[in-house]
C-alpha cells in the first residue's frame, strides 16, 4: 500500500506530509519512503490555532471553525502529496490532525490522561482525495487506560528494538519525548517536558534551579504533557517568581533546561546511544549541551536510520494508518501505560465503500526502512 501521513505538532508550525510504500512479510514491516514536505498553514490559520491553545479560553464556535479549516488545509496537503510525492496514486491517508487539548492530571504517583482532542475534520480529506482516511489516532489508547502518547514509541520499538545495547530515540519538538529500548525488555517512553530552544547567552542559575524544580520532571513514566502545563504563561510565572535575565541569558537558560531534563530523564536507563530528531536538532547550542550532559552516551542523528528526522512523525502516522488498515495495534502498552494494544483510529470512507483486507495474522516485531524511491521528488523544505 501507499499511505500518506499528515501531522502538525505542538508548535503548529505547519503540516508535515510524508508518502511511503508499505508491505508486510510475517513479523516484518517494510517502509519505503517516497518523499516528504512541510506545508505552511494558510493565511491566519496558524495564529487562530495558537490563539485557541491552552491556557487560552475558546468557544465551541471557534472549535468548529478550526476543525473545518484545519481539515481543509490537511485535505489540500494530502491532495498535493498524492500527486507530487506518490506519483498520482495512493491507497490511504492517515491524519493525526492538530492537537488542541490533552486532558491530563499530574499526581506524585504518575500522570492520568482522561481524553485528548485533535482537530482536522477527516471528511474534507476523504472528499478531496477520494481516499479512505484513518484519523483520531490517540483516543483508543486513552480509552484502554493509556496516555495516548508518545506514539512515536511504536516506530522506535519496531526499528530499534533488536539493538544489543540500550538505545534512546529522542524527539526535540514543542514537547520533547523519548523512547528507551533495553535489549529484550519492554520499551519505555515518555515526554521529557519543556522543549524551548535558544541560541546564545549564559544560563541564569536561579532561574534554572526554579524551572528544574517543576514536579512533572519527577513523575514516573509513562507520563505525557503539553501546553496545558508548559504553555505561554508557564515561563511568565517563573520569571515573576525569580526575576528576568536579559534575552541572551534567558535563551541560554532554556537551552540548559532542555538539555538537563532530557539527560536527567535518560540517566537511570544507562543508554549507550541517543538518536535525535525534531526541530530542536537544528539548534547547534542545544545539541552541544545535550552531548555534554548525555556523555558518555553517544548523541547521533535519527536520519542515519534512513528516515529524515524532519518527517519522522508524518512517517509514523502513515505507519499507524497502515497497521490500522490491517487490524494491527497502533501503540505500545509499556510505553503509553495502556492495559492492551488497541487498533488505532477511526475510518472515514473515500469515494468508494470501505473494503478492508483480512486482519494480518502476525503482529509486527520489526521495521525495515527501504532505500528511498528515486522516482519520488526530493524533500521540500519551504523557507
Structure explained in plain terms:
- This protein has 383 residues and is an alpha/beta fold.
- It is built from eleven helices and 13 strands.
- It has helices spanning 45-52, 60-84, 122-129, 139-143, 152-160, 205-212, 232-242, 247-266, 284-294, 312-325, 333-336, and strands spanning 2-8, 15-25, 28-39, 92-107, 110-119, 133-135, 167-171, 175-182, 185-194, 273-277, 298-301, 346-348, 366-369.
- Strands 1, 2, 3, 4, 5, 6, 12 and 13 form an eight-stranded mixed β-sheet that branches. A five-stranded mixed β-sheet has the order 9-8-7-10-11, sandwiched between helices.
- A hairpin with a 3-residue loop joins strand 7 and strand 8.
Write a short abstract of this structure.
Helix content is 32%, strand content 26%. The protein has 383 residues and is of the alpha/beta class. A hairpin with a 2-residue loop joins strand 4 and strand 5.
Biggest pleated sheet:
8 strands, mixed
Unreliable spans are 377-383
Give the structural class. alpha/beta
Count of strand segments: 13
What is the element string, with H for helices and E for strands?
EEEHHEEHEHHEEEHHHEHEHHEE
Strand fraction: 25-35%
Average pLDDT, rounded to a whole number, is: 90
What Rg is obtained from the alpha carbons, in whole angstroms? 20 Å
The end-to-end distance, rounded to whole angstroms, is 31 Å
Shape: globular
Q: Total helix count?
A: 11
Percent of residues in helical segments?
25-40%
Layout of helices and strands, plus pairs?
Elements: E1 2-8, E2 15-25, E3 28-39, H1 45-52, H2 60-84, E4 92-107, E5 110-119, H3 122-129, E6 133-135, H4 139-143, H5 152-160, E7 167-171, E8 175-182, E9 185-194, H6 205-212, H7 232-242, H8 247-266, E10 273-277, H9 284-294, E11 298-301, H10 312-325, H11 333-336, E12 346-348, E13 366-369
Parallel strand pairs: 1-4, 3-13, 4-6, 7-10, 10-11
Antiparallel strand pairs: 1-2, 2-3, 4-5, 6-12, 7-8, 8-9
Helix pairs in contact: 1-2, 2-3, 6-7, 6-8, 8-9
